[in-house]
Amino acid sequence: MEHCAACGTPEQAAALKAVIEGSRSTPGCLMHILQEAQGIYGFLPIGVQKTIAEGLGISLSEVYGVVTFYSQFSLKPKGKHRISMCLGTACYVKGADKVLEAIEKEIGIKCGECTEDGLFSIDSCRCVGACGLAPVMMVGDEVYGRLTPDSVKTILEGYKKEEA
Amino acid sequence: MTVQELDVIRQKKHELIEVRRTEKDQSEEVRRIIKEQGDKLAEVTGYRKQVLVCGGTGCTSSHSAKVIAQLEESFKELGIDDVLIVKTGCFGLCALGPIMIVYPEGAFYSQMTPEHAKTVAEKHLVKGGEIVKELLYKGTVHEDGSIIPFAETPFYKKQMRIALRNCGVIAAEDIEEAIAAGDYQAIEKVLTTMTPDDVIKEVLDSGLRGRGGAGFPTGRKWMFAKASAGDIKYVCCNADEGDPGAFMDRSVLEGDPHCVLEAMTIAGYAIGAHQGYIYVRAEYPIAVERLKIAIKQAHEYGLLGKNILGLGFDFDIEIRLGAGAFVCGEETALMTSIEGHRGEPRPRPPFPAVKGLFEKPTILNNVETWANINPIIMKGAKWYSSIGTEKSKGTKVFALGGKITNVGLVEVPMGTTLREIIEEIGGGIPNGKKFKAAQTGGPSGGCIPAEYIDTPIDFDNLVAIGSMMGSGGLIVLDEDTCMVDISKFYLEFTADESCGKCTPCRIGTKRLLQLLTKITEGKGEPEDLTKIEELAEHMKSSSLCALGQSAPNPILSTLHHFRNEYEDHIYNHHCTAGVCKALLSFTIDKEKCIGCGMCAKNCPVSAITRTDYVAPGHKLASFEIDTAKCIKCGVCQSNCKFKAVERK
């Protein structure tokens, strides 16, 4: 478990260990372990990947290959408020790209980045399935629909105030 | 649980559910009870009224949970204890959520807020209360003030709900309601009266084709898997609904998860499998949660696990979460992903029915396909095959999205025309805009232009006009959509989602995207269209899986139906829809400009300055745009009250 010392607390390391022990005998458990690990750490630093590789007796390259294949897994930390703008078709034809521009302008970073203070990160996603409310974004688990470049500004100002 | 015990549960809540079927589906007996109303209904069902609130993703996003919380609070305050609150799955009309229906009246309230819920509780749900007309869905209130049953409104009238039969009818997290609504009746019938061959024959004869995209006959898949040797086989459910804009699978899982569990068990019995996997997108938290609850409940009731219904058949189901990879919707890639690897497709043959998950014979069907199994078993292949067209039987669920009034989920018989779906059910295009095309099949499909609006929709007709059914996303495009831009949008998607295993797809999508980007930036050359067509053909014939084989479809279909738009971009550097920014130019008509300066004040890059020309009749000098500085954002145009800013 020594790899994790550099990238998390002892509690996190213990939680990860428990996940690995609990699922290692299930066929095809790697994805599940990675999902749990990301839940514990918020992202998947290389140390965590090494721990998982050792725990399962597979190579780090195999773990890394899976991590980088799926868009849900992240090698970088995300912000406290994870903004995820839907760029699915229904949102796109209703101007999601303009809303995303407005978000980037308001937060001052580009899509895929995280602010230096670690408060906000912006990502795009492919359809959260709330097409009836298009265009849609998620901030954390909260869904905001029927967005316009103006309304998104107001919503994000609310989050900023909360942090100020 | 035994068959007899199952029957007791079915009877227990039977009337409760029957009251909620829309009028045309209700039995005579229930209609009579409802007519007599009041105490009689409470006596039979236990409740005077039932309030159904949608708890699907759409309505949850528009805060239906707050509506439920308010109802509960109001009930406490008002001492209402004989009205049942039911959190259901999707009613379909997502654009007007949160939606709430009160039975037995069938009063359809839309766009509810906690305040509205309070009003409805106080005025309608109390004893002797009356429907609050102002809060009803406008489509259900006639001009003269009379109320139309929602089943008679244009949105619902032409629909036929088979796969969605229980969505928005039952409490999605209550197995007893699911049983009372008919779930698990088919597994009982199968295990007590049918052989595996009978089951396969019924599915085969029904003409059911896979609803995931390709439309392969479901019964054939089952037949192949049964014929494969081996004592370990698997049944998989594809709930990795990756086509952006399609959300029917999610709605079925959120509204009636048990119908999927039951159907997979039936398939297990038919092909000789005892283990099932549901591969579901992690982006669907509500669906995943409801599936988990459903599996747990099915275990508790002896409807899943060892010795189902005491009839000697074992079957279990596990959930596997996807992690955001479109290619995992492809069957072999999905299986590789369940095995815990990078979700890359495998060459076929061997087909999964011979060598699939963990190298064992496997069948994979998508959620909507599974949702059709119970009705086929219960009502028979003959009934099912009487619905639809010659080669496409049954119904299809479409997720209506884009530039359409009634955004939502609809289920119609195969063979319904696009016009009926868009103009009647969908309520047409908002803001008086013109219909330009409908996109079906997502990133693997194509666009159907306005001249084909009367085509009856089924698997084969859509292919014939250059699109495909896909999973059923139907995005409506109006005159403000640029067809080159929409192709580019899909290519960005497929280039991003290409898994990289085979060269035609990995490089092909990138190159196609480059060519399209070039055209949208006004740098297109005449030979680019030939290059696109040539490359597209190579990709179609040589990519490993359906992702690469179908990635060129959005371009080929738009190129076929809207070639003039591509040519306009290339030859005239002009984008009629005004979407491709690089091709736009903004100018100020100096005769119309009154010199107010609103444009200059709002210009984010200070590209607008005052000239010294004063137009006749005006007092101030007009403005002009420095095209070198202009970023073509269009802010000047939207701020000019005098229509002096022109976009070309």
User: What CATH first level of the largest domain in chain B would be assigned?
Assistant: Alpha Beta
Average predicted local confidence, pLDDT of chain B? 94
Major sheet description of chain A: 4 strands, mixed
Oligomer: heterodimer
The largest beta-sheet of chain B arranges its strands as: 7-8-6-5-9
Instruction: Please count the helical segments of chain A.
Output: 7
Strand content bin of chain B: 5-15%
Largest interface: A-B, 38 and 54 residues
The gross shape of chain A turns out to be elongated
H/E topology pattern of chain A: HHHHEHHEEEH
Gyration radius of chain A, in Å: 18 Å
Question: Strand tally of chain B, please?
Answer: 18
CATH level 4 superfamily of the largest domain in chain B: NADH-ubiquinone oxidoreductase 51kDa subunit
Distance between the first and last residues' Cα of chain A: 38 Å
Number of extended strands of chain A: 4
The assigned structural class of chain A equals alpha+beta
Strand order, sheet with most strands of chain A = 2-1-3-4
What is the first-to-last residue Cα distance of chain B?
A: 71 Å
Radius of gyration of chain B: 28 Å
Which term fits the overall shape of chain B? globular
